[in-house]
Amino acid sequence: MKRLAYIKTFGCQMNEHDSERMLALLEGCGYGGTQRWEEAHLIVVNTCAVREKPERKAYSILGRLESFKHKNPGLIVGVAGCVAQQEGERLLARFPSLDFALGPGKIYHLPEILREMERGRRGLCEVGFADRPSKDCFLSHAKRLRAYVTIMEGCDNFCSYCIVPYVRGRERSRPGSEILTEIEALVQMGTKEVILLGQNVNSYARSNPHELTFRQLLSKINEIQGLERIRFITSHPKDFTEELIEAFARLERLCEHIHLPFQAGSNAVLERMSRGYTREEYLAKTRKMRDVVPKISITADAMVGFPGEREEDFAQTLDVLREVEYDGLFSFKYSPRRGTRAACWEDDVPPEVKKRRLEFLQEFQRGITLKKNKELEGEVLEVLVEGCSKNSHREMMGRTRCNRIVNFPGGSELVGELVGVQIREGLPNSLRGELCR
Ligand code: 5AD
Ligand code: SF4
Fold this sequence. Notes:
CATH architecture of the domain at 3-126: 3-Layer(aba) Sandwich
Number of strands: 19
Structural class: alpha/beta
Strand content: 15-25%
Radius of gyration: 22 Å
CATH superfamily of the domain at 3-126: Methylthiotransferase, N-terminal domain
Bound molecules: 5'-deoxyadenosine, iron/sulfur cluster
CATH topology of the domain at 3-126: Rossmann fold
Shape: globular
Oligomer: single chain
Strand order of the largest sheet: 2-1-3-4-5-6
């Protein structure tokens, strides 16, 4: 009987991609994937340390797995991701049933770890950083329509609230030639859309004058025959250049969507966050984006309750929402992360104030998102069909170039196709439409 692996993923696309990589490595070791943890022979909890909430959830799952493992002693349980990187040995001590801890830079050690497990070893801890991101290309990508491709890892920015530079290490970029070869291989295997991944893609190969710049890399990827769409995440506003804005107008495969986290609307807060831009500079960039590419969809991350955030500061965050009219927004309550500079400051915005500000902000944004979705009614948009819709087998689901989910009546023969869909209804989180024949 095939052994089954279940991976629980917390956090960002980086982590989702790491889970895909782990699954591919596990397939190479004879495991199959399962969505049901009860039937798994191996469980990996891929953790995220960026905010308190997902970290707490990961701890709670690890706690529950302790008792589950007592009933299933043959089960192998591992922890991966940024909490494993940060807490390694401490996690193994706190959860005695844990068999291994694996940092994000050591994912490729997973097969070795499993071999050690077969020899009866337990309590293995593999953390630390690789010198550069490893190759991504795995056969399990073969049927993936939309493939993630890591172009750089780590971050040198040290925003005062952020744990990433500590748990993902300094910036490292992959050679451009390797990235291009990998995307060509993916396209041969059926990939239509690539999502270039990096904590800060705009500083791709920043310190290497012999390497392609990010803009040049985009041009080269744009030339790959058979590839239909290119996206990238995440961009840092301070490194987001005019040249890159122009790229959206010039490169036909680059989708009209940019994720540009602004975090806070007040200059005083941005300064304490060490973001390296002012609200005026940020707003000027988004205005320029909309001038050059009027249909561009802009999304962002924002935080409420950073130390010292007053009502006036929060009002300025709302002002940014009002001015930019984001197509979508990910928003969070600030939580101190041990080891960061901001964690040394008093977390002085009371929890109930953080809660109220977050709820207000999210309600405000819901109205904007719905309005933007309604504005698309009547338009015919290009949709890459991904599969059956969640709600009905008679409906298909796909994504527009502006990164909206669209549901429409249709059959599974459309999967993998680029089709025109006329939008009939803009909903709070998606669009509904009809196929144009
Ligand atoms: N508290 C709350 N949110 C945070 N983020 C990063 N660090 C913290 C923190 N300490 C948010 C930022 C970032 C997103 C990935 O998570 O908005 O862009
Ligand atoms: Fe964290 Fe700032 Fe780096 Fe983004 S740019 S990963 S928020 S330190």
